[in-house]
Amino acid sequence: MNKAVSSPWCFIINPHAGGGRAARQWPDLYQRLKSHSVTFEHAITTSSSQARALACSRANAGIRNFIAVGGDGTVNDILQGVFQSKLPLNNVTLSVVPWGTGNDWARFHHIPHSPNKWLSFFLNASQAPHDVGIAQYGKAYASHHAFLNIAGTGLDSHIIQQMGAAGGKSLRYYLTLFKSLYRYTANTMTLTLAPLTGGDGHAASKITKRHKALITMVCIGQYGGSGMRFAPMANSHDGLLDVLSITDIPFWHRIISTPYLLNGKINQHPAAFYQQTPSVAVSDSTNEYFQCDGEIIDKLPVRFCIHPQQINTLISSR
């Protein structure tokens, strides 16, 4: 067994993930883990809050390795729990058995779905550092929420609100997307991006972008929305956020532009603003909601910043 996975692990299972797929397939994976003498504990949760509380308590008890059995939401729940614990994030390794709906974080990291292939991935995996994003919001920006993949506002958070607690399958997401492309009214947003440091060590000027934005995404990973490639240049350990903001376009242009989100060329769209930055502030006049890793958090304004290589994850060693 690879040294990276020889330590004790805590598997936190969301039985509702993927329409019940996690509950159906966990017994098989459980037996496979036992047969390979993996040291682990597991818990089946009944709610998001329970998953967070469990991750927090196990981190405070000294557990440093966590596996989310579910989707992006389950990963986010464990991240929040560990983030709220006394254990420094850089002592933690977090990965996923991708049995959720979108599985966009797993897609970016090429983590397989089938129990047999996942077990092979796990037993041979290596640890790698991973950036963590922090959303700062609320009064005096005193509230903080961590994310590993993608945050967003505008059309993006509108779709999540329309889907509601039902969440559901990828097909439901795309149906809601096309309805929202017709109904959503874009608002004027202001983005203020911190400057990058040049090769000479000197920082350039900050960038301010004010426009009527259809959608604004702040990315560590590349994928969101069940396979849409919002950030084709994103790297999960480069210490940068990839910011995509699309200027509003008429309905039919919205429809015919959708392939750009699937073919990895959205940064080349004429209406796209795409920049990398260590932090970005987003505000508007209507107090739209923003989301982190598929969860509606609060209303704008918000500041997103990157904490480079603050957590560890598993990657294929092959």
Automatic annotation (TrEMBL):
Keywords: ATP-binding, Kinase, Nucleotide-binding, Transferase. Residues 4-141 form the DAGKc domain. Gene3D superfamilies: 2.60.200.40, Probable inorganic polyphosphate/atp-NAD kinase, domain 1 (3.40.50.10330). InterPro entries: ATP-NAD_kinase_N, Diacylglycerol_kinase_cat_dom, Lipid_Phosphate_FormReg, NAD/diacylglycerol_kinase_sf, YegS/DAGK_C. GO terms for molecular function: ATP binding; kinase activity. PANTHER family: SPHINGOSINE KINASE, SPHINGOSINE KINASE RELATED PROTEIN. This is DAGKc domain-containing protein. It comes from Photobacterium aquae.
